[in-house]
Amino acid sequence: MKSPSSVIMKINGRHKMKFVIPKQLKNPSQFRPLEHQLAGALTPVTPRAGFAAELQAKLSRAAHAPTIGVRPAPTFDKSLVTSVAAIATGLLLMVSGFRAVVSVAGVIVLLLQFNRERKSSSTLQRPLSQ
Amino acid sequence: MLNGNSNGHKEMSDQEILALTSQGSQDAYGLLYQRYVGRIYNYVYYRTGNHHDAEDLTARVFMRAMRHIQNYQDRGVPFSAWLYRIAHNLVANWHRDNSRKQEIPLDDIPYHPSERQLPETSLMRTEEQDSLLAVIRQLPAERQQLLILKFVEHYSNAEIGRMMGRTEGAIKSLYHRTLISLRARMEGDEISVFSNHEN
């Protein structure tokens, strides 16, 4: 039998009032058995004894590994490097010709590029179990 | 280092600990680890269904978190949401990798509890609960996460909403739809969850 969705009540024997029963309250225990099943099945599990300590030790070792964690802070100030490079370029221009400066600059750029790619690939491919 | 045992840190909120972590404090990260390792393990365990993979993936979660914690930005959601997101991504990768392997129906696998399975766990798990867990693992990931957070971690709908980036109402709605879906799947699998109730 279908339960009513609203109830009409008389207040003080005179005033009629209509109370709407919310849908959820009509069937409060609709999912109760399923929820009991879920509560029984989904209980906290305890990891193997020693797992947390082993992992903590592993994390601690990884934290001290040089390439895992934060990227190392640059040891030079960028402006210092730039000014040194500018002075070196000027000296090279004075000592040799324009072609030599271009050649040296090209080699430096290639080396920097190679170094950057090597660093990024080693960071990506580093195994977790260190 | 990374022990997280200093008493001064015990009562600190996640945000305060994260501030210390961003300054490079290994102890602070250790405290976060101790706070969340159990929860992440539980989440991964119920998503994968075995302790071996749960251990492996939990380790990966905390490794990845440690590598990227400097980039963590507080956007008003709990720190645990970030960890659960990492765990969710790793579990998704794990499922994707496993789906490429040959699948054997669960019914064809004889049940031999592994040596690493905890005795209290194997004693308490009934066949009916195992069937229910198998059905839960067929649900979409976010519904599984909702059930795990609700029943294993006992979070409120509001807390789950903050973690999953939804409103409390949306979580209630999702929960209701999850129960309907779960019941339909169980009836489809001829699991007589309601037989006792109806009889």
Question: How do the helices and strands line up, and which of them pair or pack?
Answer:
The complex is a heterodimer of chains A (130) and B (199).
Chain A lengths: L5 E6 L3 E6 L2 H4 L5 H10 L9 H14 L13 H18 L2 H28 L5
Antiparallel strand pairs in A: 1-2
Chain B lengths: L6 H4 L3 H9 L3 H23 L2 H18 L10 H21 L19 H6 L2 H10 L4 H12 L4 H8 L3 H21 L6 H4 L1
Strand content of chain B: under 5%
Q: Tell me roughly what share of residues is in helical segments of chain B.
A: 55-70%
> What's the overall average pLDDT of chain A, rounded?
75
Widest beta sheet: strand line-up of chain A: 1-2
Task: Give the chain pair forming the largest contact, with residue counts.
Answer: A-B, 30 and 50 residues
Shape of chain B: globular
Order of helices and strands of chain A: EEHHHHH
What class do helices, strands and sheet pairing of chain A give?
Answer: mainly alpha
Which blocks of ≥5 consecutive residues of chain A have pLDDT under 50? 124-130
- Strand portion of chain A, in percent? 5-15%
How many individual helices of chain B?
A: 11
Global morphology of chain A:
elongated
Q: Kindly report the oligomeric state of this protein.
A: heterodimer
Number of helices of chain A: 5
Distance between the termini of chain B: 59 Å
What does the main sheet of chain B amount to?
Answer: none
Radius of gyration of chain B: 19 Å
Measure the end-to-end span of chain A.
Answer: 66 Å
Mean pLDDT of chain B: 80
Give the biggest sheet of chain A. Answer: 2 strands, antiparallel
3D structure, described in words:
Chain A is mostly helical. Chain A has helices spanning 23-26, 32-41, 51-64, 78-95, 98-125; strands at 6-11, 15-20. Chain A has a two-stranded antiparallel sheet. Chain A is elongated, with a radius of gyration of 37 Å. The two termini of chain A are 66 Å apart. The longest helix of chain B has 23 residues, at 26-48. The radius of gyration of chain B is 19 Å and the shape is globular. Chains A and B meet through helix 2 and helix 3 of A and helix 3, helix 4, helix 6, helix 7 and helix 8 of B.
